Amino acid sequence: MQEFKSKIGNSLGTFFLLTICYLPLFYFILFLTTNFRLTQITFLGWTIVVMTYFAIGYLYAGLTNNDIRVFDDRLEIVNKLPLFKKHVVFNFDKINSIIFKHEWTETFWNNIKSKLIKNVVTEFFVIAFFPYDYKWIKIKTDKDYQFYCLGLEMDYYDNEGPHFEELFNALAEKKIKVSWTDISDIYYQQMTKNIESKKQQT
Question: Residue 8 class from Cβ within 10 Å (0-12 exposed, 13-18 middle, 19+ buried)?
Fold first, then answer.
């Protein structure tokens, strides 16, 4: 059995960094439009704000982090986080294909022609809600199942494995039809070519 664990700490860290960066901007807009001041918030108000913030962070982690286990005959999706516990089993003979999200931004600007608007959408909107490690797998059987695994890292810098790419290769070795959402980038092209050449050799 190979286990590909989502690192919830990484995902939560990204969530807090992203949201904290936008809080001053949100407050500035609120101040300009309503003359609202932080000193107006009572202790109870701060308690509610902080608790709500951490509850949203926990919800975010629970929905976007799934561990993936690869066995000889099946694939399992596991979430151990309380309130979000999940254990879904897919036998390989029931899987038609699995699609991997290749890059977090790639679907957000396909229909936008203006480069300026694309940059604004990417830098100020998309990043606010979708972190750099945004990723999922879509398992196609008789129905489509999509599972987010934001804490599972790509193979770059000093990221510890196992990596998202290793999951791709592990499933390909099990004779599962795997693909990326886009292979225009040479990195994803090469991985796709590698698994195709291995198929021809067997």
Answer: buried
Q: Which two tokens stand for residue 68?
A: 């993936």
Q: Which amino acid is at 33?
A: T
pLDDT number for residue 178: 95
What are the structure tokens assigned to 106, written together?
């790639």
How far are the Cα atoms of 24, 56, 152, 168 from residue 28, in angstroms, in the given order? 6, 22, 35, 44
Domain containing 161: what range?
2-201
Contact indicator for 126, 108 with CB cutoff of 8 Å: yes
Give tens-digit pLDDT for 88-130.
Answer: 999 999 999 999 998 655 555 555 566 666 566 555 566 555 6
Domains in the chain, number: 1
For residue 22, the domain's CATH number is 2.30.29.30
C-alpha to C-alpha distance for 158 and 155, rounded to whole angstroms: 8
CA distance 40 to 38: 5
Please tell me the distance from the alpha carbon of residue 188 to that of residue 181, in angstroms, as a whole number. Answer: 10
